[in-house]
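anyone seen this seq b4? input:
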Amino acid sequence: MKALLTVDQLSQYLHKSVASIRSDATRNPQSLPPICRLPGTKRLLWRIEDVERWLAAHVEGMSIAAVIAVSDQQRSRRGRPTKAEQVARQRQRLSQGAGKESHASTLG
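predicted toks r here
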């Protein structure tokens, strides 16, 4: 098992102040990696693999899998589509329709 990071070590790792980490642990826990709480203690500890996994999930440059996940989330949006989405959908239908007509004319 790998060693656990303390608040001081995590602050150096994330380049955040110790006070900021302590504050976020209670007020905004989703802004930190998952905390590893040992039974019977109040110490804030983090597993290095959890911290690295959390950091990897928050990288700005997205991988193909992340782009697919985001596009799946966008597809399930509720409400009326934006004008840009409506126009894009119309263009897509027209291009698909034109492909079918040219294919039908070659068959007939």
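The two ends are 70 Å apart (CA to CA). The chain is about 60% helix and 5% strand. kinda curious what u guys think
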